[in-house]
Design brief:
heterodimer, A: 546 residues, mainly beta, Immunoglobulin-like, 8 helices, B: 110 residues, alpha+beta, OB fold (Dihydrolipoamide Acetyltransferase, E2P), five-stranded antiparallel β-sheet
Chain lengths: 546, 110
């Protein structure tokens, strides 16, 4: 059955009235109506035909240039300029590195598991900042929680050994209350960890970073009428989070990529402040199958074939797309399919969330009336008529550690709001001097993250430790339809995660192991990675007792 | 009608960016018999969408003081469709716009 909710209809009118870009069409929610889904897919593909800009890729220098993290001595955080739109200089904030006579902006840092990273961050901004190594299990001093911070004109030294499984992690700012604008203005980079399993996969498929293994950093951005990055979110619009008008990939607007008929590995990061994506590869009005091989914390045991997946802010997906399954005479389009963003679910308390929603245009982000959940093309992949590639995806990828055994009663984590436009965790709002949650070092805990029915999606991120998802309950049909098993787990829930999306009305049970090798007590953050929510205080400190 | 009010009304009704409706108004018509004088102004903006078939371009533009219009995103018919050939999405453009009290028309865009 095809459903077009009133909210989606109104959202669609808004999108058409303002940008005239994405046509709203019914999405196949797993219940059928293949024809409507095919029409919607074909429309998205048509919209990508005029994508004119070559996808930016990590190279030997410049933006996203690849560097061994062990060779980096200094990262300078500075304001600069970048032609995000071709030929138009825009103010841009970047992590700048000089190395080997070359200049790098937001370098792609690569390490091998066990490597030691020692570098200095120099804050040249006029406001505090700190780098958070997102997903890495560092001690709190090297995590970049925001407890330690570099004032303007000062430096901060990092020294840590990379102990984590191979994966694509990332680094970004984490200063209290100003993370969202700092990330938005440009501060974000990738951090690749390699190990034996990772190298075996690359050898098996003949993969090369930046050539056939392609990082895709998805970030939605808005531009002013001069073509400069634009960010301005009133306080009440922060209740929803920023939704930009354009979806950039690797800071390329309306990008295109030329590919051979072979297997490509796409390393996807949702680097957006608040936008969720329902990703699919489209060709000829149908969704191509692809293989999910890894999540936030590295490779799965074995590849899982899917044809769509949600990606929430801060999460990563590691996927293989076999373009030998695609036709060579037409493009493949990576798209986000339409979905109900559920930004204003259930009965909100009068004069509170509803009021905030109304003043910010329903579930729209602030700038330009762009909306979450609208279907849009993201990347056009032009397929060259080449052949001769005969490699196969390995049946086994890695050995995923078993989930920690459940111990005792789950710790309840309730996500809600305080009736005054603030999102809360167990009714707590962030206070720098309060640590409302404490766990014991070495404890194996189960957390039950319960998102209120009157809520919106919250991508919950824990610093310091990765976790496994054990169960989802109350999952919306549009999510459950994407291959959930009897415990409600989606294919992407079967890996190690550092961020998990909880939909309104949903309960997500996760297993954590608080074992660590560091001396003394540790203090980390647990927060919503909708960055405007984080800046509003949907974050708590938690302590790990020695 | 005040151009600002008209433009906002068109946006609210979703008319401005609807290519079918944009086409239903003859892109070349000035409605010279109307009671309003034709006003013209020059603007800058970023191209959002080009519809060569319908002869329209959607632009996120800055304020147009000569037409008493604030900055917004709007679809305009173009007098000479051939001018659309050189445009790309997200390109920065300058354009001359006329308003006859009823319809907007881009006279020149580059």
């Amino acid at each position: 059955m095809t459903r077009l909710t009133r909210r989606r209809f109104l959202g669609g009118v808004g999108a058409l009235g303002v940008a005239g870009m994405a046509r709203l069409a019914p999405a196949d929610d797993g219940r059928g109506d293949a024809q409507a889904a095919a029409r919607a897919a074909a429309e998205i593909e048509r919209a990508a035909t005029d994508f004119p800009n070559p996808l930016r890729l990590p190279g030997a220098s410049g933006l996203y240039g690849v560097l061994r993290a062990t060779e980096v001595r200094e990262i300078r955080v500075r304001r600069t300029e970048l032609a995000v739109l071709p030929g138009i200089a825009s103010p841009f904030w970047a992590y700048a590195v000089e190395s080997g006579g070359k200049r790098f902006l937001n370098p792609t840092l690569v390490v091998r598991r066990g490597d030691e990273v020692r570098l200095r961050m120099v804050n040249e901004l006029d406001q505090p900042t700190i780098i958070h190594w997102h997903g890495l299990a560092n001690d709190d001093r090297n995590d970049g929680t925001g407890i330690y911070i570099a004032a303007p004109g000062t430096a901060y030294d990092y020294a840590f050994t990379v102990r984590d499984r191979a994966s694509m992690y990332w680094y970004h700012p984490h200063p209290l209350h100003i993370t969202a604008p700092q990330v938005y203005r440009g501060l974000a980079g990738l951090f690749f960890v390699a190990d034996d399993d990772e190298e075996a996969l690359r050898r098996a498929l003949g993969l090369e970073l930046g050539v056939t293994e392609i990082p895709l950093v998805l970030q939605d951005r808005s531009f002013d009428h001069e073509g400069r990055l634009e960010y301005g979110v009133p306080r009440d619009a922060m209740f929803h989070g920023f939704i930009g008008e354009e979806i950039l990939v690797n800071l390329t607007a309306r990008p295109a990529f030329s590919a051979a008929r072979r297997i490509y590995r796409f390393r996807l990061l949702n680097g957006s402040n608040a936008r969720n994506y329902r990703l699919a590869f489209l060709q000829g009005g149908r969704r191509l199958g692809f293989y999910l091989v890894g999540t936030d914390g590295g490779l799965l045991d074995a590849p899982t074939r899917v044809d769509q997946a949600f990606l929430t802010p801060a999460q990563r997906l590691d996927v293989l797309l076999d373009l030998r399954e695609a036709r060579a005479d037409r493009a493949v389009v990576l798209a986000t399919l339409g979905f109900d963003p559920m930004h204003n679910e259930g009965t909100m308390e009068p004069g509170t969330a509803k009021a905030a929603a109304a003043s910010s245009g329903g579930h729209e982000g602030h700038a330009g009336g762009a909306i979450d959940g609208e279907e849009k093309p993201i990347l056009r992949i032009d397929v060259k008529p080449t052949s001769g590639y005969a490699k196969k995806i390995p049946a086994r990828l890695s050995r995923l550690p078993a989930p920690p055994p459940a111990g005792g009663k789950p710790r309840r984590i309730v996500l809600g709001h305080d009736g005054r436009g603030n999102w809360t965790i167990n009714r707590w709002q962030f206070e720098m001097n309060a640590t409302p949650l404490t766990v014991r070092r070495g404890a194996r805990e189960t957390w039950l993250i319960e998102n209120s029915r009157a809520s919106m999606p919250h991508p919950m991120h824990i610093h310091g430790f990765q976790f496994r998802v054990l169960e989802r309950r109350g999952t919306p049909a549009q999510v459950r339809g994407l291959g959930a098993d009897r415990n409600g787990l989606l294919p992407q829930d079967r890996g190690l995660l550092d961020t998990v999306l909880a939909w309104p009305g949903e309960s997500v049970r996760i297993a954590l192991d608080f074992t660590h090798p560091f001396p003394g007590e540790q203090t980390y953050m647990f927060h919503c990675h909708n960055l405007e929510h984080e800046d509003l205080g949907m974050m708590i400190r938690y302590g790990v007792k020695a | 009608m005040n151009p600002t009010i008209l433009a906002v009304a068109m946006l609210v009704l979703g008319l401005a960016a609807d290519p079918d409706r944009a086409q239903s108004a003859d892109p070349a018509s000035h409605h010279p018999g109307g009671a309003h004088d034709v006003k013209t102004g020059t603007g800058t903006g970023i191209v959002q969408k080009i519809d060569s078939g319908k002869g329209t371009v959607t632009i996120k533009h800055g304020p147009l003081p000569a037409l008493d219009m604030p900055g917004m995103t709007m679809t305009f018919p173009v007098k000479d469709k051939a001018q659309l050939a050189g445009l790309k999405p997200l390109q920065k453009v300058e354009f001359d716009l006329s308003y006859d009290g009823k319809n907007f028309l881009i006279i020149q865009i580059k």
